[in-house]
Amino acid sequence: MNNTAGSRNDKTARILVCDDDALMGRVIGDTLVSSFTCEVAITRNAFDAVSNLKRGDYDALVTDILLPRMDGIELILEAKKIENPPKIVAYSGGGALGRFSKGPSFLEVAKALGADWAFPRQDITTALIDLAMRGCLTRSINQQETSTRS
């Protein structure tokens, strides 16, 4: 999915979405594209997301927490290892760590391990629109200049 043709211009945010639910990934991608100027890539598993992150320069990663084989928490940890890591938005339909779900929620764990924002699944599209409108899903000019000088 891509809302712009040709090469990336400096004002176009690049966002990677990772969700094993194809419909949810598409809804999130469509929400982002309709909210602001961006290019969106969608992956259905965290392994592909890590590969994309290592090959591309993404401004933001939007990931579900509950993914098969490699979960969103592991994806967040891998994304944080990348030089100039993207901003990370995590979401989940629920769940917690610990016996009988008395431990921290998956969203609390995601935030503690490096997600910039974490939202319940039912709020993710509204939250992304808000973040996009506030310019939170693009890297700042200072951050871009720093990464090009390094």
Summary keywords:
150 residues; alpha/beta; 40% helix; 18% strand; globular; disordered N terminus
Summary of the model, kept short:
The protein has 150 residues and is of the alpha/beta class. The protein has helices spanning 22-35, 46-55, 72-81, 106-112, 124-133, 141-149, and strands at 13-18, 38-43, 60-64, 87-92, 117-120. Strands 2-1-3-4-5 form a five-stranded parallel beta sheet, with helices on both faces.
Q: How is this structure best described in words?
A:
This protein has 150 residues and is α/β, with parallel strands linked by helices. The protein has one domain: 3-Layer(aba) Sandwich (Rossmann fold). Helices cover 40% and strands 18% of the residues. It contains six helices and five strands, in the order βαβαβαβαβαα. The chain has a five-stranded parallel β-sheet with strand order 2-1-3-4-5, sandwiched between helices. Strand 3, helix 3 and strand 4 form a beta-alpha-beta unit. Helix 2 packs parallel to helix 3. It is globular, with a radius of gyration of 15 Å. The N terminus and C terminus are likely disordered.
Distance between the termini: 31 Å
Order of helices and strands: EHEHEHEHEHH
How many beta strands in the DSSP annotation?
5
- State the low-pLDDT regions, or none: 2-8, 141-150
**Biggest sheet, open or closed, and with what strands and sense?**
5 strands, parallel
- Gross morphology: globular
CATH topology: Rossmann fold
* Count, helices: 6
CATH architecture label: 3-Layer(aba) Sandwich
Strands side by side in the biggest sheet: 2-1-3-4-5
CATH fourth-tier homologous superfamily: Response regulator
Overall domain count: 1
What's the CATH first level? Alpha Beta
**Average pLDDT, all residues:** 86
Q: Specify the structural class.
A: alpha/beta
Strand content: 15-25%
- The amount of helix comes to 40-55%
Radius of gyration equals 15 Å
